[in-house]
Amino acid sequence: MIKNRSELIFLYDIVDNNPNGDPLDSNKPRIDEETGINIVTEVRLKRTIRDYLNEYKGKEIFVREIRDKDDKVQDGKSRAKDFGENKEEVTNNVLEQCIDVRLFGATIPLDKASITFTGPVQFNLGRSLHKVELKRMKGTGAFASGAGKDNKTFREEYILPYSLIGFYGIINEHAAEKTNLTNEDIDLLLEGIWYGTKNLISRSKIGQLPRLLIKINYKEDSYHIGGMLNKIKLDLKVEDEAIRSTNDYFINLSDFIEAINKNNDKIENIEYMADENINFSCEGEIIDFENGFTNIKFKKLNL
After folding, report:
1. Cα dihedral 109/110/112/114 (nearest 10)
2. Which of 23, 26, 186, 230 is 20 to 30 A off residue 254, Cα-Cα?
3. What SS3 string covers the chain?
């Protein structure tokens, strides 16, 4: 049983690729035109987690693409019928079998009604911690532009030379009661975030690496600090758009450490996983992740 609330912070980066293309805009990486910040939808992160849990851990996933013998994609009502013939049966079976519904919730359409579960785990939009540079790449295809033609087809794509992306999330203990979320589910969630990102080896996602995962566990019911991702900054060695690797910045934890120390009496512990190539700083000094905190218990995640 999930007793109290947790906050999640996840940082990962991508090199010379596209973390989340916009199909309505030539599949370009999503960028906030006002700020130059790269945006990744929470749907992309949830899909990464779902795919990992299904493919690598053998877990049943409700929200996934299933095709019939005629190669038609299954709709929501047909998917619901995979779990029963009436509302009660579908509810019990979906919650028992589908880890993604226990984690993220779902709206399950039935013939005359629907079932709605509010997800205990919610993420905001992912945003890069710096401005990014958009590059357009041109090339030629392998095939001719048409039958009997000598010329090959041309292609173009848009990439980011580098983007360090941060997601912020909450695990809501009250919603967890409604979906029967377990601590084992949360362990698999964290594994899916880290290794799902690392193992997302498609043409547009190769080069993604998880860099930092933090889970702040609270003692008090219905309490969390809030907005903890905004308290993590970058100390840059180069201009934003010139960042090309983790060597070009330090992750500044000054505001993060201050907020944690002010609330240490309400925090049970902090679980974390940090890539060895990430460098941290606080008040201008290079530190290890656990430096600077007061009376905080740490636990390295065993993923």
Report:
1. -50
2. 186
3. CCCCCEEEEEEEEEEEECCCEECCCCCEEEEECCCCEEEECHHHHHHHHHHHHHHCCCCECCCCCCECCCCCECCHHHHHHCCCCCHHHHHHHHHHHEHHHHHHEEEEECCCCEEEEECCEEECCEEEEEECCCEEEEEEEEEECCCCCCCEEEEEEEEEEEEEEEEEEEECHHHHHHHCCCHHHHHHHHHHHHHHHHCCCCCCCCCCEEEEEEEEEECCCCCCCCCHHHHCEEEECCCHHHCCCHHHEEEECHHHHHHHHHCHHHEEEEEEEECCCCCEEECCEEECCCCCCCCCCEEECCC
Neighbours of 22 (CB within 10 A): 15
* Pair of tokens at residue 61: 């996933």
pLDDT at 95 over 70: yes
Alpha-carbon torsion (141, 161, 212, 219), positive or negative: negative
- pTM value surpassing 0.90: yes
Q: Which of 90, 95, 273 is nearest to 193 (CA)?
A: 273
Mean pLDDT comparison of 13-22, 60-69, 203-212, highest-scoring range:
13-22
Tokens of 123: 């993420």
**Is residue 120 within 8 Å of residue 105, measured between CB atoms?**
yes
301: which 2 tokens? 């995640």
What gap in Å lies between CA 269 and CA 208, rounded to an integer? 28
| Tokens 């973390």 belong to residue | 19
pLDDT(145) > 60: no
